[in-house]
C-alpha cells in the first residue's frame, strides 16, 4: 500500500513510520507465508528498502499497533496550533 501511494503521489506522499527502527518496534511473532513475502518483490521505493530487507530476512510481520504511541504523538504534534473549533 505504501509503495502504491508513493508512486501515485511522487513528491507529495511520505512513507510515515516505515523506518527500520519502526519495523523492529512493530515486529510480531507471526511468520508470514511465502506468498506474502513474495509480494515484497514489487516494492522498489528506496525509502522502503531497509524495512523490506529486514522483513525478508526475519519473515515476521510488523503491525502498526506496536508503534501506536509513536503514531499518536506525531498526530498530536501536527495538530498543535490547529484551531479545531473552525473545523
TrEMBL record:
Name of protein: Uncharacterized protein
Organism: Desulfosporosinus metallidurans
Lineage: Bacteria, Bacillati, Bacillota, Clostridia, Eubacteriales
Amino acid at each position: 500500500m505504501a509503495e502504491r501511494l508513493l508512486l501515485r503521489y511522487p513528491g507529495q506522499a511520505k512513507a510515515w513510520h516505515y523506518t527500520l527502527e519502526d519495523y523492529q518496534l512493530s515486529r510480531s511473532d507471526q511468520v508470514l507465508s511465502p506468498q506474502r513475502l513474495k509480494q515484497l518483490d514489487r516494492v522498489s521505493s528506496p525509502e522502503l528498502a531497509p524495512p523490506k530487507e529486514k522483513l525478508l530476512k526475519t519473515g515476521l510481520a510488523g503491525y502498526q499497533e506496536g508503534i501506536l504511541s509513536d503514531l499518536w504523538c506525531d498526530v498530536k504534534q501536527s495538530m498543535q496550533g490547529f484551531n479545531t473549533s473552525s473545523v
